[in-house]
């Protein structure tokens, strides 16, 4: 039965795909189906693309929710369009082709899918079923001796935090204040999410808001204390409602190392098995090792596994490594009893040899690591001596390694190895199943991440904005901090262009550190690789700072510039460098880093490599666009005249507007220039068309006018020679309307004008009494006929007179069937008596812009000359 529905229609334009993704994401988020969002968004993106881009029709998207999940339908208006159904069903679709890709994704991700036809449309639908989430079980553990109990601080503090329907804090007890340093007055009324440092790994299906909305939730995350430090905590959330039906969530929180206080106890062995069944081959170690987390909770399963393995052999530490896909390396995924998490996600080669993990494929016992240095690199420097390791295998394939270590030499023998191997054999299948489930979830999350990233990168051609987007997409999703280096030219050194850290206060310190470190080698053959220079430099600088402070007997100022201890901690973990390669050239480098004691997971590095390829192409496109725009604008500016000359006794003002985005020069042009002592030339013209082709003729006309006028030729001779030059351009020639004149200021006041109006809108003269009249007569335009007979007309501008010259972009301004025209321009000019030349030009421009609601589609030039009274 359908319990909720939502629908929207999207036009057949490219931006509809992004809008449809947002519609589906928001709809499922509102319904609480957060675990289905990523798959639904990816499938919707492909199917809507098929409809609005390939089929070229509008698309209806319908979301139908029921008790088991959601059905999404994408309907287009192209029912006869053939679908590659047979190829999809046989798995023979060409993956390089655009067609059928959406159906392949449906087949891979959806619970069910299909295509329905009617006489007017086609409906491609898919269904995603929601996985039932267990809410936990109730159980009790056996009595244990005191030495087997978990260790905690003398005073155990359990923070009690309650949040309301809006996830804002309403209760904050004294233990919460002691743990995190905030008083109740400081946090009550604020969202708990403001304090939570929730994991940001792609594919993580649950966030703080979703966890607080579940009926019951248990797990670990981080909370920031009053000093900005992230404290790992373990929490148990319970959703309740008061007598009025108002829901809220009660959170019990302890430090992560005290998780045993809140952590759900392990299930008891079935059928009355004794508590020591783990020690006997006849017991069921699977239950004892898995504990309470569900099998698909990989991190919880692995952590519980190492804890139970350590307890089983009464060890001091335990660790579990998972094999990479090619089984050549093992990745540390869970430890207990070892220093913090400094080895998490560290990778160890499997093959035997010095410094390699030689005991991965077979059980191994080392009585004392001091006699076999490098046998287990993970335990180097930890104080562990005896260690037993066993492989995790599924169907004969190495999937991981489980080890238990003790500080006491000679602690373990082959008997303990057999016991641990028996338990590992039972747990291996559950671990592999959970690993594959996590891998699939991460891959789906990565796919959704790359879809969004590609759309964002394709949405801008601004170089600086592309750099910022690259950094913001990697932090904190892929790394704690990142730096982008650009290489301006082939063979030049990388330049640090952008730095970002998830804590903005650390950006300046990291940037200062990286500026003192030699940039990574941009050799394309090196590929993605570790980079130790930032961590080494930070460690050395912080060490020198600490030694200097101890020598002086003072503590360093936290606000001191340069690299501080916090900066050293921020960049002290693993750092990797990925080349940004576009068009077979390294155009930059992307450095990703983790703080001290943290490493990258292999799947995160693979996702980063995918992102770097997309980002490199986007960055190179932005660079090319910026370079070509700069060249275009530089060439266009060269076509504009220099600053207007100052003419004694005459005010001159020009306003110029080129049509088209990014154009500074079009088909209209103007010029005012000195000819000889006491004489000035002025021109305003309009080349047929707009844009670069018209601008080329503009440059020819403006420069030719100056040269010919300064040769002493009169106005008609100047225009006749310009007409011949335009006709010599052949097919590139364009006709040209031009008003050319000579201005002769008079010592007694006023100015003599000699003008030739070749097919151009007539110049208008405004007298102080408000009369407007044409100041010249029309003559043939240029660039059409070989033999032109032009003549010069003279007029006198008296004090207070204004001469207005415009191009047809002013007079032909339209709104529907109305046009401003010569009469409308004359009406505007008649209201300008007493105004300066600049004010007259501005009023004319304002009248043109207000005449119609849309932006002007033609170039405009306005030239005004006024004789002051």
Task: Provide an overview of this structure.
With 869 residues, this protein is α+β, with helices and mostly antiparallel strands. Helices cover 32% and strands 25% of the residues. The strands form seven sheets. The chain has a six-stranded antiparallel sheet. The chain has a six-stranded antiparallel sheet with strand order 14-13-12-17-16-15. Strands 1-2-3-5-4 form a five-stranded antiparallel sheet, covered by helices on one side. Helix 2 packs parallel to helix 10 (414-458). Pfam families: GAF, GAF_3, HATPase_c_2, PAS_9, SpoIIE. This is SpoIIE family protein phosphatase.
Features:
34 strands, alpha+beta, 869 residues, SpoIIE family protein phosphatase, hydrolase, PAS-like_dom_sf, PPM-type_phosphatase-like_dom, 32% helix, Bact_Sigma-Reg
SSE blueprint:
Elements: E1 4-10, H1 15-30, H2 37-54, E2 59-65, E3 69-76, H3 85-90, H4 101-109, E4 112-117, E5 122-129, E6 159-163, E7 169-172, H5 174-180, H6 184-187, E8 196-197, H7 208-213, E9 216-224, E10 230-241, E11 247-255, H8 285-290, H9 298-312, E12 317-323, E13 329-336, E14 347-349, E15 364-366, E16 386-394, E17 397-406, H10 414-458, H11 463-474, E18 481-486, E19 495-501, H12 507-515, E20 529-530, H13 533-552, H14 565-570, E21 575-582, E22 585-593, H15 602-639, E23 651-657, E24 668-676, E25 679-687, H16 691-710, H17 715-727, E26 736-745, E27 751-758, E28 764-766, E29 772-774, E30 793-797, E31 802-806, H18 808-811, E32 814-815, E33 818-819, H19 821-830, H20 837-851, E34 860-866
Antiparallel strand pairs: 1-2, 2-3, 3-5, 4-5, 6-7, 6-11, 8-9, 9-10, 10-11, 12-13, 12-17, 13-14, 15-16, 16-17, 18-19, 18-22, 20-21, 21-22, 23-34, 24-25, 25-26, 26-27, 27-30, 28-29, 28-31, 31-34, 32-33
């Amino acid at each position: 039965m359908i319990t909720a529905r939502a629908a929207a229609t999207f036009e057949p334009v490219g931006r509809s795909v992004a809008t449809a993704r947002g519609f589906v994401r928001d709809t499922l988020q509102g319904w609480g189906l957060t675990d289905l969002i990523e798959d639904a968004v990816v499938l919707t993106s492909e199917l809507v693309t098929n409809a609005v881009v390939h089929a070229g029709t509008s698309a209806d998207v319908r979301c139908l929710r029921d008790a088991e999940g959601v059905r999404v339908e994408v309907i287009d208006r192209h029912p006869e369009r053939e679908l590659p159904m047979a190829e999809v069903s046989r798995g023979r679709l060409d993956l390089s082709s655009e067609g059928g890709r959406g159906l392949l994704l449906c087949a891979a991700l959806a619970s069910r899918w299909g295509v329905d036809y009617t006489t007017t449309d086609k409906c491609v639908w898919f269904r995603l079923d929601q996985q039932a989430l267990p809410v936990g079980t109730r159980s009790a553990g056996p009595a244990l001796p005191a030495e087997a109990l978990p260790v905690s601080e003398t005073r155990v503090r359990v923070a009690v935090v309650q949040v309301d329907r809006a996830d804002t804090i309403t209760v904050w007890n004294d233990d919460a204040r002691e743990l995190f340093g905030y008083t109740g007055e400081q946090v009550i009324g604020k969202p708990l999410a403001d304090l939570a440092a929730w994991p940001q790994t792609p594919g993580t299906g649950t966030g703080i808001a979703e966890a607080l909305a579940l009926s019951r939730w248990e797990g670990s995350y981080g909370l920031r204390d009053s000093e900005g430090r992230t404290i790992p905590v373990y929490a148990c959330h319970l959703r309740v409602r008061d007598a009025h039906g108002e829901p809220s969530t009660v959170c019990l929180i302890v430090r992560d190392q005290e998780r045993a206080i809140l952590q759900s106890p392990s299930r008891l062995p079935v059928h009355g098995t004794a508590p020591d069944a783990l020690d006997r081959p006849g017991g069921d170690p699977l239950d004892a090792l898995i504990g309470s987390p569900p099998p698909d909770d990989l991190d919880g399963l692995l952590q519980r596994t190492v804890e139970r393995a350590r307890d089983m052999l009464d060890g001091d530490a335990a660790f579990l490594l998972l094999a990479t896909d090619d089984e050549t390396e093992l990745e540390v995924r869970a430890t207990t009893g070892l220093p913090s998490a400094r080895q998490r996600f560290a990778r160890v080669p499997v093959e035997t040899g010095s410094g390699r993990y030689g005991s991965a494929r077979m059980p191994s016992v080392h009585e004392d690591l001091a006699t076999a240095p490098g046998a287990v690199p993970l335990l180097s420097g930890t104080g562990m001596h005896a260690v037993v390791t066993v492989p995790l295998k599924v169907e004969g394939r190495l999937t991981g390694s489980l080890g238990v270590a003790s500080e006491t030499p000679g602690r373990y023998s082959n008997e303990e190895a057999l016991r641990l191997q028996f338990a590992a054999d039972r747990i291996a299948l559950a671990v592999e199943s959970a690993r594959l489930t996590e891998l699939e979830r991460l891959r789906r999350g990565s796919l959704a991440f790359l879809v969004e990233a590609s759309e964002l990168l394709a949405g801008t051609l601004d170089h600086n904005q592309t750099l910022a987007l690259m950094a913001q997409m990697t932090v904190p999703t892929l790394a704690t901090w990142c730096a982008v280096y650009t290489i301006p030219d082939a063979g030049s050194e990388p330049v640090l262009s952008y730095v970002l850290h998830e804590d903005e206060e650390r950006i300046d310190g990291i940037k200062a550190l990286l500026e003192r470190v030699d940039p990574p080698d941009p050799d394309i053959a090196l590929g993605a690789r570790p980079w130790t220079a930032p961590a080494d430099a930070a460690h050395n600088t912080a060490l020198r700072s600490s030694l200097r402070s101890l020598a002086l007997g003072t503590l360093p100022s936290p606000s001191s510039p340069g690299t501080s201890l916090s900066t050293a901690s921020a960049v002290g973990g693993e750092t990797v460098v990925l080349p940004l390669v576009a068009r077979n050239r390294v155009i930059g480098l992307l450095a990703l880093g983790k703080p001290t004691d943290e490493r990258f997971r292999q799947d995160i590095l693979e996702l980063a490599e995918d992102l770097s390829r997309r980002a490199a192409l986007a960055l190179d496109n932005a660079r090319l666009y910026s370079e070509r725009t700069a060249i275009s604008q530089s060439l266009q500016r060269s076509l504009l005249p220099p600053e207007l000359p100052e003419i004694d006794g005459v005010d001159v003002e020009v306003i110029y507007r080129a049509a088209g985005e990014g154009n500074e020069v079009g088909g209209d042009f103007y010029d005012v220039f000195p000819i000889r002592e006491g004489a000035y030339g002025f021109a305003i013209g309009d080349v047929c068309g707009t844009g670069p082709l018209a601008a080329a003729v503009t440059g020819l006309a403006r420069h030719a006018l100056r040269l010919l006028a300064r040769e002493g030729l009169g106005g008609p001779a100047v225009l006749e020679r310009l007409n011949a030059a335009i006709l010599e351009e052949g097919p590139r020639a364009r006709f040209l309307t031009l008003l050319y004149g000579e201005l002769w200021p008079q010592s007694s006041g006023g100015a003599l004008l000699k003008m030739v109006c070749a097919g151009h809108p007539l110049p208008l003269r405004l007298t102080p009494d408000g009369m407007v009249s044409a100041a010249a007569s029309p003559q043939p335009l240029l660039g059409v006929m070989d033999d032109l007979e032009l003549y010069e007309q003279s007029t006198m501008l008296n004090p207070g007179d204004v001469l207005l010259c415009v191009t047809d972009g002013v007079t032909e301004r339209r709104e529907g069937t109305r046009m401003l025209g010569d009469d409308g321009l004359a009406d505007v000019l008649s209201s300008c008596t007493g105004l300066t030349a600049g004010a007259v030009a501005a009023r004319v421009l304002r009248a043109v812009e207000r005449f119609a609601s849309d932006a002007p589609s033609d170039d405009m030039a306005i030239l005004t000359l006024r004789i002051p009274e």
